[in-house]
Amino acid sequence: MTQHEKYISRCIQLSKSGLGTTRPNPMVGCVVVHDDTIIGEGFTSPYGGNHAEVNAIESVENKELLVNSIIYVSLEPCSHFGKTPPCAHLIVKSKIPKVVIGVIDDNELVGGKGVQYLKDNGCEVVVGVLEDECKEVNKRFFTYHNKKRPYIILKWAESKDGFIDEIRKEDAEKKPTWISNGYSQQLVHKWRSEEHAILVGTNTVITDNPKLNVRKWVGQDPVRVVLDNSMRIPHDFHVFDGSIKTIVFTSSKSHFEDEKENVVLKYIDYTKSVPNQICKVLYENNIQSMIVEGGAQTLLGFLNEDLWDEARIFVGDKVFGEGLSAPNIEGVLCDFQKVGSDIIKIIKPRN
């Protein structure tokens, strides 16, 4: 590992501390190095707060060292005014002579302008250190800006024999059929805290009456996204309790919006591609990432439209014998791990 890679690697490590809190800003890590020693470091504060470069520079105790230092940052410093002043301007103002950047920010507001500003003001700039790793950290941010849709994670649990639910009696209590163990369930809540939204279909809500919140972890609840073409979900179910912003995709004209606080109706055409319409609306509402938790028909809709970026599949040790079959998925197995008695497979598209 080169010196530049060592410090950009630390930037990547720092950037992950902002997961789930910085959106719509990217997660960025930054270190200030003097004589091969880190003298300051920082990561992006929750949205509205300081960017990583500001936190790193402010953390340097002896500011006189900045004129002989190198600043490392995992993503190109911004050069435009937003909630905070431009970071590229602060670097120049601090008289830091050299900047090493992991990856260019191809958001149209930045898109190389930060690098150009630094060069125009006499900074030596190195770009493209651990570029792929830096892109991976901000996969949600890059997908949102480049593909004009949220980063989409498909998630389900299936039995050892390939079913996502057992056959239920009509009078059965409306609650989830647990396939995964308690540790996996806690991990799912951690994942929820990291993503911007969570989506479920009508049948899943009617069958399970889920809360779709973060109860077994610490963090923000995702925006709830619910499909309900003809408004069949009872209005006293958890998803309509008003505790979390909930977006309902429907084609049924209803006065429901006036009756429930924190519930937003979005009207779409269910005779056309529902996943594409969902992605368009969520992009317009600045939703950067989404977990699709089911059910089977909803998951298949995104798979069939090739609108997914990764799938996280739990395989439990239960055997149902019969039931609702898990979706068939083709892709590249990127990770395989065990959580107690469960197996987790992380799959990404081949392209």
Automatic annotation (TrEMBL):
Report the family membership.
Answer: In the N-terminal section; belongs to the cytidine and deoxycytidylate deaminase family. In the C-terminal section; belongs to the HTP reductase family.
Annotated positions binding substrate: 192, 212, 215, 293
Among CDD domains, the record links this protein to: Riboflavin_deaminase-reductase
Which catalytic residues are annotated? 53 (proton donor)
Annotated positions binding Zn(2+): 51, 78, 87
Q: In which pathway does it act?
A: Cofactor biosynthesis; riboflavin biosynthesis; 5-amino-6-(D-ribitylamino)uracil from GTP: step 2/4; Cofactor biosynthesis; riboflavin biosynthesis; 5-amino-6-(D-ribitylamino)uracil from GTP: step 3/4
What Gene Ontology molecular-function terms does this entry list? 5-amino-6-(5-phosphoribosylamino)uracil reductase activity; diaminohydroxyphosphoribosylaminopyrimidine deaminase activity; zinc ion binding
Taxonomic lineage from the root: Bacteria, Pseudomonadati, Bacteroidota, Flavobacteriia, Flavobacteriales
| Keyword annotations | Hydrolase, Metal-binding, Multifunctional enzyme, NADP, Oxidoreductase, Riboflavin biosynthesis, Zinc
Domain CMP/dCMP-type deaminase per the UniProt entry, residue ranges: 2-117
The organism encoding this protein is Urechidicola croceus
Reactions accelerated catalytically: 2,5-diamino-6-hydroxy-4-(5-phosphoribosylamino)-pyrimidine + H2O + H(+) = 5-amino-6-(5-phospho-D-ribosylamino)uracil + NH4(+); 5-amino-6-(5-phospho-D-ribitylamino)uracil + NADP(+) = 5-amino-6-(5-phospho-D-ribosylamino)uracil + NADPH + H(+)
Question: Would the keyword NADP be found if you checked this record's keyword annotation?
Answer: yes
Protein name, UniProt field: Riboflavin biosynthesis protein RibD
Q: A Pfam family in this protein?
A: RibD_C
On cofactor binding, the record's note says: Binds 1 zinc ion.
GO BP terms: namely: riboflavin biosynthetic process
Function recorded in the entry: Converts 2,5-diamino-6-(ribosylamino)-4(3h)-pyrimidinone 5'-phosphate into 5-amino-6-(ribosylamino)-2,4(1h,3h)-pyrimidinedione 5'-phosphate.
The UniProt entry, under SUPFAM superfamilies, shows: Cytidine deaminase-like (SSF53927), Dihydrofolate reductase-like (SSF53597)
E.C. number: 3.5.4.26, 1.1.1.193
- Name the cofactor(s) required for activity, per the record: Zn(2+)
